[in-house]
Amino acid sequence: MPVEAILTCWGNSHPFQERRMSLSEPAKIGRSVAQSRPTSSNAIFDCKVLSRNHALMWHDNGKFYLQDTKSSNGTFVNNQRLSKGAEESSPKEIFSNDILQFGVDVVENSRKVTHSCIIATLKLLDSDGREITKSSLSNDSSSVVVNNVQSHEFYQLLQYLQEALHREQLLESKLTVVQQLVQATQESTENNWQNLVNEEKLLSRLETLEKQLSICSKLQPDGSLQQELITLQNDKFHYESLAKNSLKKVIGEKVEAVKKLNDVERTLNNKEEECSHLKDVSQLIQTELNALSEKFQDQFKDLQNVQQQLQVYFSLIMKSCPKFRNCLFNSRWLV
Q: What torsion, rounded to 10 degrees, do the Cα atoms 290, 294, 296, 302 define?
């Protein structure tokens, strides 16, 4: 028969089914992931406060050991933490009836949800099926039982304190909500009272106006009031007709101004088109002038070259033919 460890849900633990693990090889305790799912034969739990590799349990030379493997929220044996956060603990010998706690309760502030930790009572069986307890390894069994009972009571008291703290936090949050509601109620009451005062003032004002109207109606005879109403209506019609005529005149002037503006815009567009056309013509003429200038420069250079050649030929003729030179000289003299 293999060496086994049995974990049973205890106290305010995150709920889970009893786990019966074989310790022929070290057993990993941790959070459920895709590659490792919870079963009745392992110590994998679907609990958010556990680390993926939270702790390790094994059997060696007739003894059982538990070690925290750098978990975030810690491992506890009989309410004693094995190591600080994110530090690996030294192996801790464990026995049956020990209370194991993996992680701590975590309150999620955004949703006011508490995620519970794993709390379990431990039962260890050797290869012969015997339960391994402190009493079986110690002569003073009575003191061990008393200590065991005291640790159970102490742990239960701690759980009660944690529940009380949690309830206190809930009460504080509810008290805050109540205070906010009271404040909102006070503000609403003050606003309602102010509205009531304003309503009373308005009613008193209306009553005063009604009294003044009744006094005026008594002082003025019916015929004069009717005549005044007729006069006011005639004035109203007169002012309305004047306003309509003025409005028609303004509208006519506006229409006229819009027409003139359209004509001016049309003329401006035509002038802009003419300017652009003249600009194009000017550019074309400038281009032609530049071409003619270049052509003139070329012909002028050709003319200079021809004159130079004529001078050279003339000098050669004068040197080679004395008769022609004399004849030319005589012709100049005669002239």
A: 180
In which residue are the tokens 């680390």 written?
51
3-state secondary structure of 4: strand
What sign results for the dihedral spanned by CA atoms 174, 177, 183, 189? negative
Which amino acid, one-letter code, is at 40?
S
Residue type, 103: G
What are the residues whose beta carbons fall under 8 Å from the beta carbon of 138, sequence distance 6 or more?
Answer: 144
SS3 124: strand
125 close to 131: Cβ distance less than 8 angstroms: yes
In what side-by-side order are the strands of the sheet with 19-22?
Answer: 19-22, 4-9, 118-125, 99-102, 75-77, 80-81
Residues with Cβ within 8 Å of 186's Cβ and at least 6 positions away in sequence, in order, are none
Q: What is the mean pLDDT of residues 72-82?
A: 93
pLDDT tens per residue across span 116-151:
999 999 999 988 888 888 765 554 444 444 454 456
pTM over 0.85: no
Q: How far apart are CA 97 and CA 34, in angstroms?
A: 32
Determine contact, residues 184/192, Cβ cutoff 8 Å.
no
> Contact, 99 vs 121, CB < 8 A?
yes
The C-alpha atoms of residue 181 and residue 175 are separated, in whole angstroms, by 10
List of residues 6+ apart from 51 with CB closer than 8 A: 30, 31, 69, 70, 71, 72, 73, 103
* CB 50, CB 73: distance < 8 Å: yes
Tell me which range, 63-72, 76-85, 105-114, 259-268, is most confidently predicted by mean pLDDT: 63-72
Which residues face 100 on adjacent strands? 77, 120
